Amino acid sequence: MTDVSGASADVLHTLFRSEQGGHEQVVLCQDRASGLKAVIALHSTALGPGLGGTRFYPYASEEEAVADALNLSRGMSYKNALAGLDHGGGKAVIIGDPEQIKTEALLLAYGRFVASLGGRYVTACDVGTYVADMDVVARECRWTTGRSPENGGAGDSSVLTAFGVFQGMRASAQHQWGDPSLRGRRIGVAGVGKVGHHLVEHLLKDGAEVVITDVRAESVTRITDRHPEVTVAADADALIRTEGLDIYAPCALGGALDDETVPALTASIVCGAANNQLAHPGVEKDLADRRILYAPDYVVNAGGVIQVTDELHGFDFERCRAKAAKIFDTTLQIFARAKSDGVPPAAAADRIAEHRMAEAHRS
């Protein structure tokens, strides 16, 4: 079912494009009083209620917002399946600059829309939303995770997201070089915000040489003030062209790997926290053709969703950390499957996730 009242022709076109992945339900939300305009996309509930965060972003158009919600929710289905969670994939996007329009009234209105789905969608934090925001949303919707410990939640999920990416990176090093240690490896991190700055801490502790970049100067200085040994690249383009780079970690918005960036990459491994890193189908083959090992994003960045899922059952950090540590083994399994099937790792990961969802449909 897709609720499309008032949708423009462009938005309708985006909703029903076959390559977006056959979503179960898409809801366009509008609350005139608060200024809320949002999209909630449910890709699959085969494994359980759709689970995924709320992105708050100044999209250039409604069509762009819908496309992002569709892509992100599909990614969540695959992420949750490979993480072994009893949840399908969902995602929401709120249209607008959170620095300008985010208000308590808007978040409460959003919570009412999520609640109206009756538990088919469970929301959490994403780009532009934070723990304090989820506390507000939860006042109108009990299907809200990523809340503060004071309000019965698990707090910031970016801690375990970064830990999971670190485990995926170690697995990538094991597969590529026969050693999971990152000591002496030069690693470029593009985006050192909520997740990226935690990842940098893991890398430095493991002995890596780190190069960073971010569009926000304050995010860069937060790291360099504490770790002056970290090198700063001028921008993302300069980072991917950095000589001697072993690993490239996209940790900002999606689409970082495209027809321009892949030929310019100097790294032999790509492993980062950003969602939907492949700009379009075929990029995974381009990476493989250049012998660049790609750790599928929705596999390695599953630490956060592992955390917020655990919150639904009474949060225990050490239990979550142990589950997130298994991302190391899952990543190695995907590389092994890719080798045996003769396909890129992204295709191998998709096959494993699709098999689990198909089995759930048959049971």
From TrEMBL:
It holds the Pfam family ELFV_dehydrog_N. The active site is at residue 91. Keywords: Branched-chain amino acid catabolism, Cytoplasm, NAD, Nucleotide-binding, Oxidoreductase. It is an enzyme of class 1 (oxidoreductase). Its main location: cytoplasm. NAD(+) binds at residues 191-196. GO terms for cellular component: cytoplasm. It is found in: Cytoplasm. Residues 155-362 form the Glutamate/phenylalanine/leucine/valine/L-tryptophan dehydrogenase C-terminal domain. It catalyses: L-valine + NAD(+) + H2O = 3-methyl-2-oxobutanoate + NH4(+) + NADH + H(+). One of its GO terms (biological process) is L-valine catabolic process. Its EC number is 1.4.1.23. GO terms for molecular function: nucleotide binding; valine dehydrogenase (NAD+) activity. Pathway: Amino-acid degradation; L-valine degradation. Homodimer. Belongs to the Glu/Leu/Phe/Val dehydrogenases family. This is Valine dehydrogenase. It comes from Streptomyces corynorhini. The lineage of its organism: Bacteria, Bacillati, Actinomycetota, Actinomycetes, Kitasatosporales.
